[in-house]
Design a protein that fits this description.
The protein is an alpha+beta fold. Helices cover about 35% and strands about 15% of the residues. Helix 3 packs parallel to helix 7, helix 5 packs across helix 8 and helix 5 packs across helix 9.
Length: about 300
């Protein structure tokens, strides 16, 4: 099943955000406001004053992210060993903007990269500790994989329009023909599809603990952000960071810390493949390195 968003996202400008603040949260309306980075796929993000963040969904699909974060982050945050966003307020549609939106406390830090981490083994332990704590939280009434969280945490063979649905992965692999070893990439994905499904009740998953959603301070992981894809599902999705952030040595520590079985590790490679496959115009040495490591892990471990 394929779904399509409208061609044009909601037009989110600083002027719009100021109008919404003046209308709904006037105490914050005169604070400094500036976009954070380039527009994301899901949201536009603005820094508000020295200590707040505004996130605005760009498409109808992602409205559920606002509601999930507002409902569940206060429940999850006290049980997690790394900082996560703290909702301060939920805004409502207004000033011509059609969706609910959020204000959060600002978290200092830089986006995680492999080179920014001083100690890979410590980073592996920190990320594993965060996931271990998240997976252990009572999942009662938690949101399932669904349209508005990108179906994160679904079974590998689920036919819905997730990042790992077979037609999407095949299309992205085929686009790299002549650049990458596409036969090897298909073998990685085939092994993930063939791996036994998660055999026990689903657990809380972040859904996308990749470098863009991890913060580093003083060379060490300090926070996990963007819980829009949070769900209760297969924890294999949360192994993405093993290949997108960690070195081979760090990855070995990470797996040992979490005691990941072979089937879950294979499914995790399938999710990592979805995160690592670049568009052909973005093919570079970094993209090659990531896919080579993924293929190498598959060949070594099966």
């Amino acid at each position: 099943m394929k779904n399509d968003e409208p061609a044009e996202p909601a037009d989110v400008t600083p002027e719009l955000v100021r109008a919404l603040l003046a209308e709904q949260f006037p105490a914050w309306a005169d604070e400094a406001l500036a976009p954070v980075g380039k527009p994301g796929v899901d949201n536009m993000t603005f820094r508000l004053g020295p200590d707040k963040l505004v996130r605005m969904p760009r498409f109808p699909r992602w409205v559920g992210q606002v509601l999930r974060e507002q409902r569940w982050l206060p429940v999850l945050a006290p049980r997690l060993p790394l900082a996560v966003p703290v909702p301060l307020a939920q805004g409502e549609p207004g000033a011509g903007y059609p969706f609910p939106w959020s204000v959060y406390a600002w978290l200092d830090g830089d986006n995680a990269t492999r080179s920014a981490l001083v100690d890979q083994q410590q980073a592996a332990r920190d990320l594993a500790g965060f996931l271990r704590a998240l997976w252990a939280i009572d999942p009662t009434d938690g949101p399932p994989p669904e349209w508005s969280n990108g179906f994160r945490g679904v079974d590998m063979v689920d036919g819905r329009d997730s990042a790992i649905v077979d037609w999407r992965i095949e299309r992205r692999i085929a686009a790299l023909d002549g650049l990458a070893d596409t036969a090897a990439l298909r073998a990685v994905f085939a092994t993930a599809l063939a791996a036994p499904a998660w055999p026990t009740p689903p657990v809380w998953v972040h859904g996308d603990p990749a470098p863009g959603n991890l913060l580093v301070r003083d060379g060490r992981l300090s926070a996990v952000i963007d819980f829009g894809t949070v769900a209760v599902g297969d924890p294999a999705v949360d192994l993405i960071g093993a290949w997108t952030l960690l070195s081979p040595a760090g990855r070995e520590v990470f797996r040992a810390e979490l005691s990941i079985d072979d089937a879950t590790w294979a499914r995790g490679r399938g999710w990592a493949l979805s995160a690592l496959l670049p568009a052909p115009e973005r093919w570079d040495d970094e993209a090659r390195r990531g896919l080579d490591e993924l293929v190498g892990d598959h060949r070594h471990l099966g």
